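As described in the Methods, two query proteins were run sequentially through the folding procedure within a single session, without resetting any intermediate state between them. The first query and its resulting structure tokens are shown here.
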Amino acid sequence: MRIPQGHWLKTLPIAHRGLWGGDTAENTLTAYKNAVHNGYAIEIDLWASKDGVIYSFHDGFLKRMTGVEGHINDFDSSYINTLKIVGTDEGIPTLRDVLFAVNGKVPILIEIKNQKDELIVERVLDELFEYQGEIAIQSFNPLHINKVRKIAPHIIRGVLGTSKADGEKWFTRHVLKHLSLNFLVKPDFISMRYADLPLTKRKTKNKAVLGWTVKSQEVYDKIKNHCDNIIFEHFIPNKD
């Protein structure tokens, strides 16, 4: 087991898209700096621009957070860099921006989004090559994580799971619900939608378990005996 009992993935609550709310928008450098200031690990989501620059942004489509139509994969970085997060003066940060801002002060849980850039995993690993802080990588796409296993086996890796994958093909829904490709990926941890906990001991043997995305202390109290840690937003978790 590569995640010992005192590892941050088991002990340090993880702020979903940074520590945000009020005047602070999700997935912004301010949200990440807030998490650093308050001592929480950070969860970020990664997409590649058309010209291969890696951005920290949750949605594939730009509309909700920038007001602009279109998918982030379809624009060059020169255009993406002109956009602002709605209601702020902040742009969409690159992965390089995030790494510079965090600078190893807290761990980062990196989600590689499923996308059409076939080199997304290689691009992310290149960016991370010289970073000295603590990281882990996860994805809903087990093929991404299998590639991480082959290229950078030293990096802690995990799979995301859920029973709610509306609009996906049957095989994809089956994999996300039953984690049926874990034999191939050999994950160190599982990040499961909190409502789908608990998982069977067979699925969690020698693995850490995270519950996502927990939005209240009440929910946390209900599931905390079924997971090692949580990815949270909209409240500050009390682990006692």
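Immediately afterward, the second query was submitted; its sequence and tokens are:
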Amino acid sequence: MNKSANLVMIPARMASTRLPGKPLADIAGLPMIVQVLHRAQEADVGRVIVATDTQEVLDVVVQHGGEAVMTREDHVSGSDRIYEALENLADADQVETIINVQGDLPTIDKDVIRASLIPLQNGDVDLATLITEITLDEERDDPNVVKMVGTTCGVAENVRRALYFTRATAPHGDGPLYHHIGLYAWRREALKRFVSLPPSPLELREKLEQLRALENGMRIDAALVDTVPLGVDTPDHLERARAILSQ
């Protein structure tokens, strides 16, 4: 792995509808964005930068020894935000891979971040992501649990090629279902192409941004991991993260 060519980008915005100001929410004595920064640094896969639309978030990251860049407030997705941040770097042309770690994953395991790079060992893959097998019955039919329909691709036992992503229960019939984890590792040219494309019909229907890539012929492979990281979207999630990181 060429760490000097990898860039971990953590998009962070203050305007969360369900948990306003969550990047600065205290978790075990540190703002949440700093906890995510530390998890990304522990993964040790490359340089780590927070991309934010708020000066206060940037200041907190810098105060805790991290690197941060400002972006516009009007981005519709984290992918757009990290691309703007990338383009504003003086050495952007040296970056080959961008790992997008969401800014609300304070308990994510460093090995999960590392696993996102595994599918990119195949040169045909444009972007990589993560899945885990669904073990709870209630998740099978939960539209908030995004499923990936995939197939083995002969490259590695723990990698699947994505055929579709859906909020429905799929595929039909006996066999495992896979919970999609929204962490992505992009080849730089793939990210550049993706943000230039308009939202696609299935993306708008399912409200799943990754379908834009599939609908435009981009290849997504996913590494199979053991656990789903806790995303902090509600006050209850925040209390769970505090309990985990206070141990």
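The chain is about 30% helix and 25% strand. We note this only descriptively and draw no conclusion about the first query from it.
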